[in-house]
Design brief:
heterodimer; A: about 475 residues; alpha/beta; Amidase signature (AS) enzymes; 15 helices; about 40% helix; B: about 90 residues; mainly alpha; Histone, subunit A; about 35% helix; flat
């Protein structure tokens, strides 16, 4: 087995036993990237020399016996996490040359553990999209089927992990941007509870919805990554100060006493029959593992897309006002007057989808429309939170599809923004409610495209999600675990 | 029509964006589709429902007002598209 094929748990086990070094593992991943990334198009920048230096440093720490769980683990990072000294583009021409003067808190935490940063991966511009086609530089492809989308907005993260260019990646999830690409690429992805992971150094899209989380090849690795990145950060005022459990202790077999809710609204019209079949099989596996399966209702589900595309765009229009060409990022240098400079800078720096969302958000917040759009959406958001609270009075974890369909062809939905937005219908409510949610590989379509299963839990019950996800993974025992076609 | 070209132009100005003729056409059509869709929220009676901006209530996070190190000027200016070593330079304002 090539080192690049190993999971974090497998490889760190070998490193602890002395049969593998971080340099060998890192070198293997770098060679894999070199060999296949022209086809996958996941990486925007690869840092081989820096990665090997970090690997050598990790090997020395491990030899001393001081290794943290992620010591020597090679990773990719979605290109909206600030990396000191390494360009952070956010998938946008606007930040094409932006070199952050500091590391995001999650990057700092990974470095403190001795992790190795291989490079930065592609994404939809400013994380706005569901297919990564809005990336200004390159569009990652689904490792399972060339010409198909890897999902978005963390498409590069998902593609890099699914193609075994690296064992894990960090992405961000504002409306499904970790879970949806994880589902389409056949890997594990988690959006943590809002506030569990610091957002400091994450380029902001919609601040009340954004969360950073891991994409990994299996559930165990996801728990290892969550252990490393969770925790209070005084630099993020929405970061929650509470005790973080060891998520690996949740990885035990048996679900006796646990109630799994099946939200009826997630199985309605538009759900692909193959997706339905995969989730039905997943429910059977959880029942076999001892869980009680009950039907629940989230009656406002049908309104989530409308709420989301008003709140997320409103917050984005405000957050992205900072790109004015003054202190960092692109500037149109020909402009002779200030207003012209602002307008030309923003019009040339932003892509079409970003402009579209800024316009919707600005409209929803503007005088005369605020009550009808933004305020109304914020009220319905409150009702959606109530829906989840009532559901979690009756059950511990919700099971559902992640995306209504398997991956689609690149270009298929490019001219129909609403169709693209509607593909997020099953993931965005977790962001509106701030609850943790994850995507676990569930099976494959007849075309050989992966289909994920979504688990959602009450605030800060990642432990239960991990327990259910682990039992799902063990019970389904999917083979193969990644595409061997490349 | 939920939104006209004139309204899109007004919003574009508020957002400090310029739109070409072609962009204006497609943006107006897209915004109209999206606004026609989101109006479905009117089906729900929200009388007396408190709007929320975050999923759960957290207390405000205060810290002590202590002086600490911040970015050095050269570092802060390093990403500036136009500066004179001391400050960012912009086109004449008045």
């Amino acid at each position: 087995m090539n080192p690049y094929e190993l999971t974090i748990a497998q490889a760190t086990g070998q490193m602890a036993a002395g049969s593998l070094s971080s340099r060998e593992w890192t070198q293997s991943c770098l060679e894999r990237i070199e060999a296949i990334d022209d086809k996958i198009k996941a990486f925007l920048v690869v840092k081989p020399e820096q990665a090997l230096l970090q690997a050598d440093a990790a090997d020395i720490i491990r030899a001393r016996g001081d290794a943290e769980p992620l010591c020597g683990v090679p990773l990719s990072l979605k290109d909206l996490l600030c990396t000191k000294g390494t360009v952070t583009t956010c998938g946008s021409r606007m930040l094409e040359n932006f070199i952050p003067p500091y590391d995001a808190t999650v990057v700092e935490k990974l470095k403190e553990q001795g992790a190795v940063i291989l490079g930065k991966v592609a994404m939809d511009e400013f994380a706005m999209g569901s297919s990564s086609e809005n990336c200004a530089f390159r569009v990652p492809e689904n490792p399972w089927k060339p010409g198909f989308v890897s999902g978005g907005s963390s498409g590069g993260s998902a593609a890099s992990v699914a193609a075994s260019e690296c064992p894990a990646s960090l992405g961000s999830d504002t409306g499904g941007s970790i879970r949806q690409p994880a589902s389409l690429c056949g890997i594990v992805g988690m959006k943590p509870t809002y506030g569990l992971v610091s957002r400091y150094g994450l380029v902001a899209f919609a601040s009340s919805l954004d969360q950073i989380g891991p994409l990994t090849r299996d559930v165990t690795d996801c728990a290892l990554m969550m252990n490393a990145i969770s925790g209070h950060d005084p630099k993020d005022s929405t970061s929650v100060n509470r005790q973080i459990p060891d998520f690996c202790t949740s990885l035990t077999k048996g679900l006796q006493g646990l109630r799994i809710g099946v939200p009826q609204e997630y199985f309605g019209e538009g759900l692909h029959p193959e997706v339905r079949a995969v989730v039905t099989r997943g429910i059977a596996v959880l029942r076999e593992a001892g869980a009680a399966i009950i039907e629940v209702s989230l009656p406002r589900t049908d309104y989530c897309v409308a709420v989301y595309y008003l709140i997320a765009t409103a917050e984005a229009s405000s957050n992205l006002a900072r790109y004015d060409g003054v202190s960092y990022g692109f500037r149109n240098l020909e402009s002779q007057a200030l207003m012209e400079m602002y307008k030309e800078t923003r019009s040339q720096g932003f892509g079409a989808e970003v402009k579209r969302r800024i316009l919707i958000g600005t409209y929803a917040l503007s005088a005369g429309y605020y009550d009808a759009y933004y305020k109304k959406a914020s009220q319905v958001r409150s009702l959606i939170v109530d829906d989840f609270q009532q559901a979690f009075d009756q059950c511990d974890v919700l099971i559902s599809p992640v995306v209504p369909t398997p991956a689609w062809k690149i270009g298929e939905k490019a001219d129909n923004p609403l169709a693209m937005y509607l593909s997020d219908v099953l993931t965005i409510s977790a962001n509106l409610a701030g609850i943790p949610a994850m995507s676990v590989p569930g099976g494959y379509s007849q075309q050989g495209l992966p289909i994920g299963i979504q688990l959602q839990g009450a605030h800060f019950r990642e432990d239960l999600l991990f327990k259910v996800a682990y039992n799902l993974e063990q019970g389904l025992n999917l083979q193969p675990q990644w595409p061997g076609i490349i | 029509m939920k939104i006209t070209k004139e309204e899109v132009l007004k919003v574009a100005h508020l957002a400090r964006l310029t739109l070409s003729e072609a962009e204006l056409d497609s943006m107006t059509s897209h915004l109209d589709t999206i606004l026609s869709y989101v109006i479905k929220l009117d089906e729900l009676d929200t009388t007396g429902v408190q709007p929320i901006t975050h999923a759960f209530a957290e207390a405000n996070a205060f810290r002590e007002d202590r002086v600490s190190t911040s970015l050095a000027r050269a570092e802060a200016l390093a990403n500036g598209p136009c500066h004179n070593e001391e400050a960012f330079v912009v086109p004449k304002i008045i």
